[in-house]
Amino acid sequence: MILRTVGSETQMEANEQNMIDPVWSRLRQEADAMAKAEPMLAGFLHDTVLKHRSLERAISFFLAGKLASRYLTAVSLVEAFDEAFSASSDIREAVRRDLGAVVERDPAARSLAVPFLHFKGFQALESCRVAQWFWSQGRNGLALYLQSQISEVFDVDIHPAARIGKGILVDHGTSVVIGETAVVGDNVSLLHEVTLGGTGKESGDRHPKIGNGVMIGAGAKILGNIRIGEGSKIAAGSVVLSEVPPHSTVAGIPAKVVGRPKTAEPSRSMDQAVEYDYCI
After folding, report:
1. For labelling alongside 14, which of 48, 130, 218, 222 has CA 20 to 30 A away?
2. Average pLDDT score over residue span 62-68
3. CA–CA distance from 102 to each of 16, 57, 248 (Å)?
4. d(CA 256, CA 127)
């Protein structure tokens, strides 16, 4: 792979980074191939991927451009994103696992470059991770400002105090809402219009706790400080108001246990079918 528009020092740094980061290496190769296949996008791909020395730098530049406003410029946001990525190995790991989760579970993601460049669910989630880092540092004003911008730009509203695991798929992203005290485990998949919300005006710990490997179907609403057991499946359109045992399928309004998923982690198989067990 040759970058004709960058200096030899930048090229050397990029090559060194590729050797130690296979995700970044693969993303660069895919972007390079896309630029050759569609020359009209070469400038876009150069600015968003190919001119950067690392995945963190590329995503900082790309997301800052999307979230910039007359109050916070893209340059200022790049510095903020760089600060978060430099300080937190958790965010760096989460970005890579989230990107892998999209490719693993979404058949429309035929490469790493596709969700990185075009899927707003992925872009919103990684922006939220930066906002969450600033919240953890006590910089709540900036975190809430980013939350507002993310909601306006991506139509995804995740409170910066929410705790989000790694390997998360936010499919499509539109109208996903996650409240302040919500907890989402690892390897969870959420489709569009999912709400992890409260039940009213109660204060304190008031939002759902989602176990590892859970799949939450489109339009599902999970309300209140309730536990959704690991490996569970929430059918599309369900309203969940009570605890869900591990490895259960729930459906309906209000949702009830109707069966068991066929796999230990339905979030990975993304099978939307509801397994009814009439012996329950």
Report:
1. 130
2. 97
3. 26, 20, 24
4. 34
Rounded to two decimals, what is the model's pTM?
Answer: 0.90
* C-beta neighbour count of 204 within 10 angstroms: 8
Classified as helix, coil or strand, 2 is coil
Q: What single-letter DSSP state applies at residue 111?
A: S
% the chain with pLDDT above 90:
88
DSSP annotation of 50 reads I
Q: Using pLDDT thresholds of 50, 70 and 90, give the confidence band for residue 60.
A: very high
Which among 150, 115, 258, 54 is positioned nearest to 164, based on CA atoms?
150
What domains lie within the chain, and their CATH numbers?
A: 18-155 (1.10.3130.10), 162-280 (2.160.10.10)
Q: Are 142 and 125 in contact (CB under 8 A)?
A: no
Beta bridge partners of 15: none
Query: In the numeric block, which tokens belong to residue 269?
Result: 């198989």
- CA dist., res. 73 & res. 94, Å (int): 26
Residue 213, Ramachandran bin (φ over 0: left; ψ between -120 and 50: alpha; else beta)? left
pLDDT at 280 over 70: no
State the DSSP H helix or E strand holding residue 128, giving kind and residue range, or none if neither. helix 120-136
